[in-house]
Specification:
The chain has six helices and seven strands. It has about 230 residues and is α/β, with parallel strands linked by helices. The protein has a seven-stranded mixed β-sheet with strand order 3-2-1-4-5-6-7, sandwiched between helices. The relative contact order is 0.19. The structure holds 5-O-phosphono-beta-D-ribofuranosylamine.
Amino acid sequence: MSIPAPEASAMDLALVSPIEHAQITLDERSPLKLGLMASGTGSNFVAIADAIAQHRLAAQIQLLIYNNPEAPVVEHAQERNIPAHLLNHRHFSQRETFDQEIVTLLQAADVEWVVMVGWMRRVTPVLIDAFPDRIINIHPSLLPSFPGIRAIEQALDHGVKISGCTVHLVRLEVDSGPILIQAAVPVYPDDTPARLHRRIQTQEHRIIIQAIAQIAEHHRLQNLLIP
Ligand code: GRF
Protein backbone atom coordinates (compact mmCIF):
# COMPACT_ATOMS: atom_id res chain seq x y z
CA MET A 1 0.00 0.00 0.00
CA SER A 2 1.38 3.38 -0.86
CA ILE A 3 1.07 6.01 1.83
CA PRO A 4 0.80 9.55 0.49
CA ALA A 5 3.34 11.71 2.24
CA PRO A 6 3.39 15.49 2.50
CA GLU A 7 6.25 17.31 0.82
CA ALA A 8 6.98 19.20 4.04
CA SER A 9 8.20 16.05 5.77
CA ALA A 10 11.24 16.02 3.47
CA MET A 11 12.93 18.23 6.05
CA ASP A 12 12.47 15.51 8.66
CA LEU A 13 15.17 13.50 6.98
CA ALA A 14 17.53 16.34 6.24
CA LEU A 15 20.86 15.06 7.48
CA VAL A 16 23.73 17.46 7.31
CA SER A 17 27.32 17.45 8.29
CA PRO A 18 27.88 18.68 11.88
CA ILE A 19 30.09 21.43 10.49
CA GLU A 20 26.91 23.10 9.24
CA HIS A 21 26.19 24.10 12.80
CA ALA A 22 29.56 25.76 13.29
CA GLN A 23 29.45 29.49 13.84
CA ILE A 24 29.99 31.28 10.54
CA THR A 25 31.12 34.89 10.67
CA LEU A 26 29.54 37.03 7.99
CA ASP A 27 32.26 39.42 6.91
CA GLU A 28 31.09 41.39 3.91
CA ARG A 29 34.20 43.58 3.81
CA SER A 30 36.05 40.99 1.71
CA PRO A 31 33.42 38.91 -0.10
CA LEU A 32 34.54 35.68 -1.70
CA LYS A 33 34.71 36.25 -5.44
CA LEU A 34 32.75 33.54 -7.22
CA GLY A 35 32.53 32.37 -10.80
CA LEU A 36 29.37 30.37 -11.46
CA MET A 37 28.98 27.87 -14.28
CA ALA A 38 25.56 26.63 -15.35
CA SER A 39 23.80 24.97 -18.27
CA GLY A 40 20.13 25.06 -17.37
CA THR A 41 17.35 26.43 -15.24
CA GLY A 42 19.41 28.23 -12.64
CA SER A 43 17.50 27.68 -9.42
CA ASN A 44 20.78 27.16 -7.55
CA PHE A 45 22.15 30.30 -9.17
CA VAL A 46 19.11 32.19 -7.87
CA ALA A 47 19.52 30.70 -4.39
CA ILE A 48 23.14 31.90 -4.23
CA ALA A 49 22.47 35.32 -5.74
CA ASP A 50 19.54 35.94 -3.40
CA ALA A 51 21.50 34.81 -0.33
CA ILE A 52 24.18 37.36 -1.24
CA ALA A 53 21.64 40.11 -1.90
CA GLN A 54 19.97 39.38 1.45
CA HIS A 55 23.34 39.56 3.28
CA ARG A 56 23.24 35.88 4.25
CA LEU A 57 26.41 35.07 2.32
CA ALA A 58 29.67 37.06 2.22
CA ALA A 59 30.33 36.47 -1.44
CA GLN A 60 30.03 38.18 -4.78
CA ILE A 61 29.23 36.65 -8.18
CA GLN A 62 31.85 38.06 -10.52
CA LEU A 63 30.61 36.19 -13.56
CA LEU A 64 28.19 33.54 -14.80
CA ILE A 65 29.41 31.31 -17.61
CA TYR A 66 26.73 29.34 -19.42
CA ASN A 67 27.17 27.02 -22.38
CA ASN A 68 23.62 26.61 -23.65
CA PRO A 69 22.16 29.59 -25.54
CA GLU A 70 18.66 28.52 -24.43
CA ALA A 71 19.54 28.24 -20.73
CA PRO A 72 17.00 30.14 -18.59
CA VAL A 73 19.75 30.86 -16.06
CA VAL A 74 20.90 33.83 -18.14
CA GLU A 75 17.62 35.65 -17.50
CA HIS A 76 18.15 35.34 -13.75
CA ALA A 77 21.61 36.89 -14.16
CA GLN A 78 20.34 39.73 -16.33
CA GLU A 79 17.54 40.54 -13.87
CA ARG A 80 20.19 40.90 -11.16
CA ASN A 81 22.77 42.77 -13.26
CA ILE A 82 25.27 39.93 -12.89
CA PRO A 83 27.66 39.66 -15.86
CA ALA A 84 26.85 36.56 -17.92
CA HIS A 85 28.96 35.11 -20.69
CA LEU A 86 27.78 32.52 -23.19
CA LEU A 87 30.45 30.01 -24.20
CA ASN A 88 28.87 27.53 -26.56
CA HIS A 89 30.80 24.25 -26.36
CA ARG A 90 29.59 23.40 -29.89
CA HIS A 91 31.91 26.09 -31.20
CA PHE A 92 34.97 24.29 -29.84
CA SER A 93 36.47 21.16 -31.37
CA GLN A 94 38.32 20.13 -28.18
CA ARG A 95 37.32 20.10 -24.53
CA GLU A 96 40.70 21.56 -23.58
CA THR A 97 40.34 24.68 -25.71
CA PHE A 98 36.82 25.16 -24.39
CA ASP A 99 38.11 24.89 -20.82
CA GLN A 100 40.99 27.25 -21.60
CA GLU A 101 38.49 29.88 -22.68
CA ILE A 102 36.59 29.35 -19.43
CA VAL A 103 39.79 29.79 -17.42
CA THR A 104 40.64 32.98 -19.29
CA LEU A 105 37.21 34.44 -18.52
CA LEU A 106 37.27 33.40 -14.86
CA GLN A 107 40.75 34.80 -14.32
CA ALA A 108 39.92 38.05 -16.10
CA ALA A 109 36.95 38.40 -13.74
CA ASP A 110 39.26 37.91 -10.74
CA VAL A 111 37.39 34.77 -9.62
CA GLU A 112 38.68 33.03 -6.48
CA TRP A 113 36.31 30.03 -6.32
CA VAL A 114 34.31 28.33 -9.05
CA VAL A 115 30.83 26.96 -8.38
CA MET A 116 29.22 24.54 -10.83
CA VAL A 117 25.46 24.73 -10.51
CA GLY A 118 24.10 22.37 -13.12
CA TRP A 119 27.14 22.48 -15.44
CA MET A 120 26.52 19.60 -17.82
CA ARG A 121 30.01 19.27 -19.33
CA ARG A 122 32.95 17.09 -18.38
CA VAL A 123 35.98 19.07 -17.30
CA THR A 124 39.64 18.68 -18.25
CA PRO A 125 42.89 19.27 -16.33
CA VAL A 126 43.04 22.70 -17.95
CA LEU A 127 40.23 23.93 -15.70
CA ILE A 128 41.06 21.80 -12.65
CA ASP A 129 44.72 22.87 -12.60
CA ALA A 130 43.87 26.57 -12.97
CA PHE A 131 41.73 26.44 -9.79
CA PRO A 132 43.25 23.64 -7.70
CA ASP A 133 40.82 22.56 -4.95
CA ARG A 134 38.79 25.67 -5.68
CA ILE A 135 35.97 24.25 -7.78
CA ILE A 136 32.79 22.84 -6.24
CA ASN A 137 29.82 21.10 -7.81
CA ILE A 138 26.32 20.21 -6.67
CA HIS A 139 24.91 16.83 -7.61
CA PRO A 140 21.38 15.46 -7.08
CA SER A 141 22.25 12.21 -5.30
CA LEU A 142 24.00 11.00 -2.20
CA LEU A 143 27.40 10.39 -3.76
CA PRO A 144 29.12 8.05 -4.29
CA SER A 145 25.76 6.57 -5.31
CA PHE A 146 24.49 7.54 -8.76
CA PRO A 147 27.18 9.80 -10.23
CA GLY A 148 26.75 11.20 -13.73
CA ILE A 149 23.61 12.16 -15.60
CA ARG A 150 20.14 10.81 -14.81
CA ALA A 151 21.06 10.44 -11.12
CA ILE A 152 17.44 10.86 -10.05
CA GLU A 153 16.09 8.32 -12.53
CA GLN A 154 18.81 5.87 -11.45
CA ALA A 155 17.86 6.31 -7.80
CA LEU A 156 14.19 5.64 -8.59
CA ASP A 157 15.08 2.63 -10.77
CA HIS A 158 17.06 1.15 -7.87
CA GLY A 159 14.15 1.67 -5.50
CA VAL A 160 16.18 3.60 -2.93
CA LYS A 161 14.16 4.88 0.02
CA ILE A 162 16.46 7.80 0.77
CA SER A 163 18.11 10.08 -1.74
CA GLY A 164 19.54 13.58 -1.52
CA CYS A 165 22.22 15.88 -2.79
CA THR A 166 25.94 16.44 -2.43
CA VAL A 167 28.29 19.39 -2.66
CA HIS A 168 31.80 18.19 -3.47
CA LEU A 169 35.15 19.38 -4.76
CA VAL A 170 35.55 18.76 -8.47
CA ARG A 171 38.02 16.17 -9.73
CA LEU A 172 38.61 14.85 -13.24
CA GLU A 173 36.35 11.86 -12.82
CA VAL A 174 32.70 12.92 -12.94
CA ASP A 175 31.12 13.57 -9.49
CA SER A 176 34.06 11.94 -7.70
CA GLY A 177 35.73 14.60 -5.52
CA PRO A 178 35.85 14.94 -1.73
CA ILE A 179 32.41 15.48 -0.23
CA LEU A 180 31.81 18.78 1.60
CA ILE A 181 28.11 18.62 2.57
CA GLN A 182 25.21 16.27 1.94
CA ALA A 183 21.51 16.42 2.71
CA ALA A 184 19.06 13.52 2.56
CA VAL A 185 15.41 13.41 1.55
CA PRO A 186 12.92 10.54 1.61
CA VAL A 187 11.83 8.83 -1.59
CA TYR A 188 8.11 7.99 -1.71
CA PRO A 189 6.54 5.09 -3.61
CA ASP A 190 4.61 7.35 -5.95
CA ASP A 191 7.53 9.66 -6.73
CA THR A 192 8.19 10.76 -10.29
CA PRO A 193 11.64 12.08 -11.29
CA ALA A 194 10.26 15.61 -11.33
CA ARG A 195 8.68 15.28 -7.89
CA LEU A 196 11.81 13.80 -6.33
CA HIS A 197 13.98 16.41 -8.04
CA ARG A 198 11.87 19.22 -6.54
CA ARG A 199 12.32 17.73 -3.06
CA ILE A 200 16.07 17.36 -3.61
CA GLN A 201 16.39 20.89 -4.95
CA THR A 202 14.90 22.36 -1.79
CA GLN A 203 17.89 20.87 0.00
CA GLU A 204 20.34 21.81 -2.77
CA HIS A 205 19.47 25.47 -2.37
CA ARG A 206 20.28 25.21 1.32
CA ILE A 207 23.53 23.22 1.22
CA ILE A 208 25.12 25.06 -1.71
CA ILE A 209 24.86 28.27 0.33
CA GLN A 210 26.16 26.50 3.40
CA ALA A 211 29.15 25.16 1.48
CA ILE A 212 30.01 28.57 0.06
CA ALA A 213 29.63 30.14 3.52
CA GLN A 214 32.11 27.66 4.96
CA ILE A 215 34.55 28.26 2.13
CA ALA A 216 34.20 32.04 2.52
CA GLU A 217 34.91 31.76 6.22
CA HIS A 218 37.93 29.53 5.62
CA HIS A 219 39.18 31.97 3.00
CA ARG A 220 38.71 34.91 5.38
CA LEU A 221 40.66 33.19 8.15
CA GLN A 222 43.47 32.26 5.75
CA ASN A 223 43.74 35.88 4.62
CA LEU A 224 43.98 36.99 8.24
CA LEU A 225 46.92 34.65 8.79
CA ILE A 226 48.87 35.83 5.75
CA PRO A 227 51.12 38.71 6.91
C1 GRF B 1 20.71 20.44 -9.95
O1 GRF B 1 19.78 19.46 -9.57
C2 GRF B 1 22.11 19.97 -9.72
O2 GRF B 1 22.23 19.05 -8.70
C3 GRF B 1 22.46 19.32 -11.02
O3 GRF B 1 21.84 20.12 -12.00
C4 GRF B 1 20.68 20.70 -11.43
C5 GRF B 1 20.71 22.18 -11.73
O4 GRF B 1 19.52 22.78 -11.36
N1 GRF B 1 23.90 19.22 -11.19
P1 GRF B 1 19.32 24.34 -11.47
O5 GRF B 1 19.67 24.73 -12.91
O6 GRF B 1 20.22 25.00 -10.49
O7 GRF B 1 17.88 24.57 -11.18
